[in-house]
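If you are new to this repository, start here. Below is one unmodified record pulled from the training split, so you can see the exact layout before writing a loader.
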Amino acid sequence: MSLPIEAVQQALREERLDGWLLYDFQGSNPIASRLSGLASSGKMATRRWYYLVPAEGAPRGLVHAIERHNLDDLPGEKRPYAGREQLASELKHLLEGMSRVAMEYSPGNAIPYVSRVDAGTVETVRQCGPEVVSSGDLVQRFEAVWTDAAFASHVAAAERLYRIKDRAFELIRSRMKAGGPLTEIEVQEAMSDWFREEGLVAGSPPNVSAQENAGNPHYQATRAVHRAIRPNESVLIDLWGKLPEEGAVYADITWVGYTGTAIPDELRAAFAAARDGRDAAVDLVQSAARDGRELRGFEVDRACRAVIDKAGFGPLFIHRTGHSLGENVHGNGVHMDDYETHDTRRLLPGTGFTIEPGVYTDRYGVRTEINMFVNEREAIVTGPRQQDILVLT
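And here is the target side for that same chain:
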């Protein structure tokens, strides 16, 4: 991608930062590698490089003498260095006039998705004078904000996922009615065929988990390891996909069914807790958007988790409330998380993410997953919300 220098400088001024210092060594910072264009350039990058975008003035870079042309596609002067003493001198020169610079750093590694610059490099930059702050929200602005076309692609993908979900549950329902055998892998493989029919791509097959297997949030049926789907059991289906076109972004949903008429009280209560937690999170996001109020990822997780805790299932909710959506199913924006990490990034207009609380035991698991998109003064759920466990008889 081409780094939009003017837009970056405007963002820096809004954030009251003097500059954004991109740094990479042999791919250790994939964010910098992507933003600089090196990731897709095919150029050999074996030495340390720096590229500074100041809030005011021309950008400038620092590259090794044997790779002096690596940043030629970016504007501004690039000074070469060779030995380590020259590197130290040139880095100090590069950072002259900088008081606060953003880097791919997270204090205490609170947000590991952003924490890509090693501690020694952060120390070296600090020794040159500037305070180092996290570039987390800057990364969001230039890697997680959807275009209008991306949003349209998400909606189209979501519509297809809901159709596939309906077909999967209908397959289970019809097989239960006929009394014939059915396995997780059969449903999974049928869904993979429907993905191809619908023109969707995904990095891996959908998740079909029966009864105790649904208690493992990342269970994946295979030809070698799977189980039968039997009467009077819960079935969790998690599916994600996107259109096969440049810039398309993912949709990602999870629904739960039951292959009997009398849903056990504990299962029903667990799903109700997850559903109510989901809706509390949605309500918070929507009210903040309407009011133009700043909201951060950890706050959304807290709102969801408080409801599930109150219902008595808190210890069984063992993952974050949601993740960013983008060109990868786990995108580069804010996650709804105060559990695995403390995500202080803001929910920025133009970004999308999941809300997907769950309850997991060694006997069963339930999860309800929906997708949200936040814009100026509006936040929408981009598909139906499951209200009750589906009866598959």
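Two things worth knowing about this chain: The domain at 5-143 is CATH 3.40.350.10 (Creatine Amidinohydrolase; Chain A, domain 1). The CA atoms of residues 44 and 67 lie 8 Å apart.
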